[in-house]
Each structure stands twice: as C-alpha cells, then as structure tokens.
Amino acid sequence: MSSSEKHWMVTLQQVFYPTLAAVGIPCENCMLSRSGTFYLMAMSVADNLVLFFIVVLELTFKYHQQEPFWSFEPWCSLRDIFNYGAFNASTWLVVFFTVERFIAIHTWKIKVKICTPRCATWTIVAIFVLSHVLAIPYYWSNTSVQVDNQTMCIYRPEAPAPYIHALIWFQSLQAYLFPFLIILTLNGLTLRLISLRNRIHISPILRSRMRKSVVLLVTVSMTFVLLSIPRAVTQIILRTTDMYTLDRNDYSQRINIAADTGTMLSLSNSAANMYLYVCTQAKFRQEFIACIRHVSLFTGPKSQKPGLSTCCGHLLPIDAPLLFSVITSQNRIYIYTYIRHTCSSGN
C-alpha cells in the first residue's frame, strides 16, 4: 500500500505506538512506598517489558520498516515468547495485586503470612517464570516466509488447526477470562465489605487508609479490565473465524479496525499506571507537585542570589550534583525526596 493510499488507521497507529512508548516507559519508575509496593514495582517492570517488546520492537517497527528484524528467523519464532510472556506477566501481576489487597483489607489471620515482602517476592518470580514458560509453545506457531519479495512473519500454514486453536483459547482464557472473573469477584467482595464496615464505628485513620487502598485497588484493576475487554472480544472473533483467510491490513473490514483499536486500548494500560497513581494517591500528588515547584526554582525570581537555590532554608549552588540530578533524571520523585530529607537532616 503506497503512502498516498494509506488508511487512516495505519497513520493513527504509526503515531500512536511511538507516542505510547515515549509517554509510558519513562513514567514507570514513579512508585508508591505503601503495602503492595513489591507488586506495583513488578507491574512496572512487566509494563515496561510490554512496551519494549510489543509496542517498540514489534508494532512501532511494523509501521515504520518494510522488513523489521523480527520478520527473519530466529526472531520470528522467538518474538511471541517474549511478547506473550511479558503481557501475561503484566496481567497476572494485576490479578495477584488484587488478591493481595483483598487479603490485606479484610485483615484475615492469613494476612501476616501472605502480605509480606518474602511472599510477594516468590509470587512475583513465579509469575514471571511461568508466564514465559507457558509462552514457549508459540515458538512453533510462526514462520518466516517470502511474499512478493518481502519477508514476513506469519502463522505457520502447515501447523495443525487443533494446535493453533489450543494456543488461541488457552491465551484467551488465561489472559482475559480468568483474570476478569477473579478481579471482578474480589472487587465486588471488597466493596461489599467496605459498605458493611461503614455501618459500624471505626477510627478515622483506619477509614482513611482503607479508602486509599480500595481506591488504588479498584482503579488499577478495573482500568485493566475495561481497557482489555475490546481486545479480548475481537481477538477471539478473528482467531476463530478467519484465522488464515482474513487480510489484517484490509481496513475496509470493520473487524480489523475494531481489533486494532482494541489492541491500542489494551496496550495503553501498560503506560497508564503512573497517571492512575497521580489521580488516586494524595501523597503521590503532593510529592509530584513539590518536585515541580522545586524544579521551578531555576526560573524563579531574579532577586534570588545568582547560582544559588534554596532547600529547607539552606542555599545550595545550582550546579550541585544532587540538585542537578533532579533536572536530568526521569525518576524525579525519588531524587527530590532524597534531597529534601538530606536537607532536613542538616537543620
């Protein structure tokens, strides 16, 4: 398809995927120091892997190169192992984060055994390992072929239909249906418990902590569900009705537009977590705003002494290494907090 004949959906994706990677990857370092931080950090790593393998290496290259490197062997066979491994790890980390928060909020006796850094670490390692191990069968599902003097990576035509169907339904069940059911069920039970507890007297501090935990839980998990549903539905339709015959580049077919829109929405979840934290967590907003204000000192009033900035009442040279790192580092929240604490200790 020549550039003058490009469908608007192609142009949209050419712009969308590089933008998604640029917006999402730098923001995944901004985390919260609360219970469940291990899961949030792991979700950040998994989301970055999704953005790197799927958004950057596959989809961005697909729309900006005629023959991406993954069109050739052995990358064609290995591509889906990394793609599905990262995507499934991201999905199940959201599920186990929901389970961990559910247990923590309900304050069961099992909480002291489950809601611990040690348990979280082993769970996270198991999720990453199993997600990639279960993606190994995709190694035999793709092949590199020559079509009109162009190398392409496609589903292996000679692969048995039951094998391909098994991969499709296994992926659909374990990446969409089962996670959706678990998340919706636990969120429903959690909200019911909160409703019942509101009828009895509890301390304002406990009520505030519970509210923040529930807001973060519901926001992260339900955003994942809502953004993933369109892709789940369209992928099942595509893979079970027109597995080999439908041209996925033919955007006169409405299902192709719906499928690619669903993919964009689903992958947007990997870049959205930091912004969800900003919207739901007051402490995170305060730290973020404080960091912006601190950076703005560089363009502050001219009455301030040249070459100096203030921190906790002390004058610091603008070219001080720690202060300079606030400007250059992507992980601004952590670094600003470190500077602030360092300054405070000097009072």
TrEMBL record:
Its taxonomic path starts at: Eukaryota, Metazoa, Chordata, Craniata, Vertebrata
Which Pfam families would you find in this protein's record?
7tm_1
The GO terms describing molecular function are: G protein-coupled receptor activity
Q: Where does this protein chiefly localize?
A: membrane
Provide a GO CC annotation, any one.
plasma membrane
Please state which protein family the record places this protein in. Answer: Belongs to the G-protein coupled receptor 1 family.
- InterPro entries named among the record's database cross-references: GPCR_Rhodpsn, GPCR_Rhodpsn_7TM, Orphan_GPCR1
Species source reads Gouania willdenowi
Q: How does it sit in the membrane?
A: Multi-pass membrane protein
- Would the keyword Flavoprotein be found if you checked this record's keyword annotation? no
- Record field: transmembrane: 38-61, 81-99, 119-140, 176-194, 214-233
Which intervals hold domain G-protein coupled receptors family 1 profile? 18-277
Q: Where in the cell does this protein reside? A: Cell membrane
Q: What is this protein called?
A: G-protein coupled receptors family 1 profile domain-containing protein
Q: Which controlled-vocabulary keywords does the entry list? A: Cell membrane, G-protein coupled receptor, Membrane, Receptor, Transducer, Transmembrane, Transmembrane helix
